[in-house]
Amino acid sequence: MPKVSDVARITTRCNTIWRTCAGCELLKSLPPDVDRCTACADPEARNILEKQAQLGRERLYRYAALVGRIEAWALLIPAVSDAERLEHIRQALTADDPDRAVR
Ligand SMILES: [Zn+2]
């Protein structure tokens, strides 16, 4: 029966082994003579990855807040007409789209 590790081997170079990185302690595909992943071996690459991860977390939090606002206007706020609900949801969608400024 195939195992998850078998699938991982298919997607990695043949001379690499899945081991714990000495820097970040995450499981990485590393050549036998290397004990740190690319990000840990290169501080600049690590900084770039950390900045990308931070941007990803910030985007995730903004989307979660947006979903909460939409849920509130759609379901939780009482005594509001459907037109008002839709208008508030429309405002939330246009004001909080994190990717809008990038496009
Ligand atoms: Zn690492």
Layout of strands and helices, then pairs:
Layout: H1 4-10, E1 17-20, E2 27-30, H2 38-41, H3 43-76, H4 82-95
Antiparallel strand pairs: 1-2
Helix pairs in contact: 3-4
The structure holds zinc ion.
Number of domains: 2
Question: Could you spell the SSE succession in H and E letters?
Answer: HEEHHH
As a whole number of angstroms, the C-alpha radius of gyration is 22 Å
Mean pLDDT: 86
Q: Hey, roughly how much beta strand do the residues contain?
A: 5-15%
For the sheet with most strands, the description reads: 2 strands, antiparallel
Overall, the morphology is elongated
Terminal CA distance: 46 Å
Low-pLDDT stretches are none
Q: Give me the side-by-side strand order of the main sheet.
A: 1-2
Structure description:
There is one protein chain. The protein is mainly α and 103 residues long. The chain has two domains: 4-40, no CATH class; 53-95. The protein is 57% helix and 8% strand. The chain has helices spanning 4-10, 38-41, 43-76, 82-95, and strands at 17-20, 27-30. A two-stranded antiparallel ribbon has the order 1-2. Bound molecules: zinc ion (ZN). The site of zinc ion (ZN) has 9 residues, from helix 2.
